[in-house]
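Minutes, project check-in
Item: structure for the 674-residue chain
Input as provided by the requester:
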Amino acid sequence: MKPLRHTVEPIWQEFSGEAAWQTVADLSRFHRLQASPGYRQAAQWVWQRLSSYGIAAEILSYPANEQTQFWACRSFQEWDCTEASLHLIAPSEEQRELADFRASPLAIIQRSAPFDGEAEVVLLEDGEEEEEYAGLEVAGKVVLSRGDLRRVVELAVQQRGAVGILFDGMRPLDPVRPEGDLADVRQYTSFWWQPGDTKCFGFVLTPRQGQALRRLLKKATEPVRVRARVVSRLYDGALEVVSAMIPGQTDREVLVVAHLCHPLPSANDNASGAAAILEAARTLHSLIAAGRLSQPRRTIRFLWVPEMTGTFAYLAGREADLDRMIAGINLDMVGEDQEQTGSAWLIERPPEAAASFAPDLLARLRDELPGLKGMTGVSSSHTGSAEYLLYRQAEVAFSGGSDHYVLSDPSVGIPTPMLIQWPDRFYHTSADTPDRTDPQSLARSGSLAAAYAYWLATAGLEEATWLGYEMMARFKTRLVQVAQAAVNELLSLSAAEEMAESISRLDRRLSYLLDRHRAALRTLERLAPVECLVTELHKEAQRVAEQELAWVKNALDLHAVGSKLEALPSPRPKTLSEEEQQAAALVPNRRVRGPISLRDHWHRLERQEREAWHSLLKARKGRTHDTLTSLALYWANGSRSVLEIVELVELETGVRDVELLLAYFRILRKLGLA
């Protein structure tokens, strides 16, 4: 087996971060909303650029209408907007322009319905609760809200007849975007219509505009009125996926994915990922054509998709081919200038239910980058004896929210880590412009993705064997860290019952990690016949786990002697709550491939069911519930009870939420999806 550097070095030298940055600038000129003429133009631009490089590429088209589903993902109508403006017209002394689609396409709520007329404005704080509408007449009027848009549409438009929404929110992203930041920037906001919805128009105000309008509404002695004009249409159309390939010697494939969509400019999210994989495709094609890299044995497939919807569409149309797709990588928001955006470069691991070789391989290849000739962002100590990074990077657990959440679902079976820069001060705003991107960030991510894809496309028995030992080394490190954390916890305890429970938790934790490591090792057989190696490495993993558990117990014995404790009692049997008993009695069986977003099926639920789910989520801060429900669905295999799934999710995330996951699976049953 050749050293990794022999793969990574030529890719790094050939890849042009400056060219990728120029592509970001080019793509940022397209209004790339999913299923729209602007997205189609961007897709054609990418296809033309691939063709100019001599890379085989095609544009695939899928239905964009309200009748089509890709597994459980519902399609939606195409949308086109050519003109939109909003003016404050009363009181007369306050007249001014508030929004113009020509100046900023983000000034309109995407997928707005056509409108031409005047309307009174009614003030809402956020408009998410029924009580806020008590005694308030909104029919035929426009509401000003900073709340969850879907909720405001349901309460103000669907139930009470409002004709439009003015949105002045700005989602905080601590610590890089605190409350009150970006006062003159507009947040990307979109309607996601349900079948049968009464559609309306909407505009996005900057927070400063919103504050001024709110003050006016509170003090005005006459109705505050606006004139709105929206020239748009929703219609049955199409959404496109650009597919390109570097052919291999077999029909097996490695996928490299980036979403091409989002409104103009959306530079980092996600012109950066689209640009990085375009330059990665050119780089590999050029190196192979020049003979500097050999032709791979497996095909490398590059996909530019409408985020998630396009991935669902592509995979649902190729169910018979899923077993040929051995692994993937997703690039989402990879171009950030870290000084401006406050981001860190992350490898997001696939979910534990889809344990595989992929994240360990990606992390090992990333570790090769700092030593490459010409690598920027690396410095040395004053004597030159040690090197260190000047940019931020980390590995994090799965959270979802991008195309890897579809690919890595065990029912799909394509283990896919994600490269991302997060957080980003300018995320989903009109300030996500090309000047916030960095050619070196693009080069690091694009080169790494190309090296990862090429290595997997060429790997054979030697490479699979090496990777198995690499995975074993990283697993040992993880076990040592878990054991040391357990010792730290034990030494802080004084009660014998607490110590016994701590040891019991460690035992469960180690068993879980062993099971996931064994599952990951088995995926090496996608690369080569290594059954014997997998067996031996798993035995070694068991030995190390037993050794670490014994080490922790020895530390506990010493602590017990010092604390003058007798022998520890057995952990007390756990008494299940009524909710846990219900969860133990239900075994979900999935009826569709791929993850399931309740948003796609919201219209099929009764009003009281929607209210109950809304109340459940409102009691939980942040968006952790999205990750928890996704992970729970991944663990559902037709034999595990909901309670077993709850416990697996807890082992994966540290969060135990029986109420949420029980309610989620009951909704899936109601919808006929499980």
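Outcome recorded: Residues 268 and 550 are 48 Å apart (CA to CA).
No further action items on this chain.
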